[in-house]
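Dear colleague,

As promised, here are the two records you asked about, laid out in our usual form so they can be pasted straight into your sheet.

NAME FIELD: protein one
SEQUENCE, THEN STRUCTURE:
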Amino acid sequence: MTPLRVGVVGAGKISGQYAATLTGLADVEVTAVADLDRARAQAFAAAVGGAAVRTLDDLVTADDVDVVLNLTVPAAHADVAFAALAAGTHVSGE
């Protein structure tokens, strides 16, 4: 079975719990992460096994992202969701 490839947007407080859960799912692979703070994105990427650190625009259009997991602050949810949808990528919001 091909794993679901997830791109995570937002590497703040709640993302640690998601990293722990996502890495424990055999049929899910975190392939990309984006955050306004590049160091946080890099830390999250390392925690999930080396996902690529990308900009939001690159993440939502990436060939290796099946769904965007939107973990941003509420004020940014709509912008991230609309960017993913405009790119033809599924999106799930926290």
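NAME FIELD: protein two
SEQUENCE, THEN STRUCTURE:
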Amino acid sequence: MPALTILCFAYSISLFYRGMIAVIAPELAADLGLDASGLGMLSSTFFISFAVAQVPVGIALDRYGARLTIAVCLWFSVLGTALLSMAGSPFQAFAGQALIGLGCAPVFTATMLFIGRHYTPEQFSYMTALVLAIGSFGDIFGTAPLALLADWLGWRWAMLVPLMLAALTACGCWFGLPIDRPEGEQPSLALLLQGMARVLTLRELWPIFPMVFASYAVLMAIRGLWSGPYLAQIFALGAAERGAILLLMSIAMALGTFLLGTLDRRLEQTKTVVIGSALLTSVSLLLLTLWPQQSAWLAMIAFIGIGLCGFNYPLLISHCRTFLASSYHGRGMAVLSALSFIGVALVQGLSGWMMETSAVMGVAPTEQFRYLFLLLLVVLLLATLAYGFSRSELRQKPSCCLNVELRPEC
């Protein structure tokens, strides 16, 4: 389906932006004079902007449809990429990251809405995983290819490639996506905001929220930020070597996303698959905590393990979706995306503060990263514990459980 192909390409651009800082972090930090805390905040700025934008994005998708919303927003990413590439100060880099996050904000939610409208509920998790796996080529491009390009041209000129791709994608969305602006009288802004708030009142979602908050945050703390500095500081690896290891991690993420979706479709036990993936991810984090400087090979194996098992976000969306009325799917996914990206921003910001504080206190780099991996391990295990109290997904849902207004009677 051409529309789904265009959305996959848009999603791949979004994934590229999420992880690119990890590859060019040492060079970017040196160029802009950023310490560990500043680097963490720079990376998290994308996710903060992305999360905050979910409220207006959710409303825009309901009012104007995916075609107009994505096509317009992606031009903010183009502008942000240009600003980041020319940044002469940290403030300009932060502004560029904020614009990039705003531009990418509607892509994932719009893609999930498209799948929800064109495929059955039983196919939702599998199709979502398939789209995310295909879109992972953007994440793959943000590893070794970006590292080689940055080595050749410098990180600033390397940003011209995603800038042009984002511009082409914006044009593709405008001319290639079907007009999907809702017809008839649209609900008021107050009613739309009230509907988003109601999603947070669903008690069935409360035990799932910690995992939504933490799972992707832990993955992106590694892939999107600290993997590059870790490999550079502990093992003295250059940009090309770092990019090669992160390329393997990204391939594992793409493969793992597809495998988890397939496993969920066959077992029809989303909760079990999510818990299993979180525990396997915890094993890799434990290896990094115990032996942070053992060898680059061990680090690579652990990163691959985290990539293979850590991206269970599509399954969490599928799990939450079974408790929402169809009329709340758009706003529900916007709320969940916001919660997830707030988690990424907070974990990256907290980890950056911790790394900088420990450096000021004279803690050796090896111990700094040991504490980092321990922090991520504890966050993920606590979220998994809370998730264990969640209700299993509703494969066949009574009508009362589909409607937020009727939630008290369920």
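A couple of things worth noting about protein two: The CA atoms of residues 289 and 370 lie 5 Å apart. Confidence is low (pLDDT under 50) at residues 397-410.

Best,
R.
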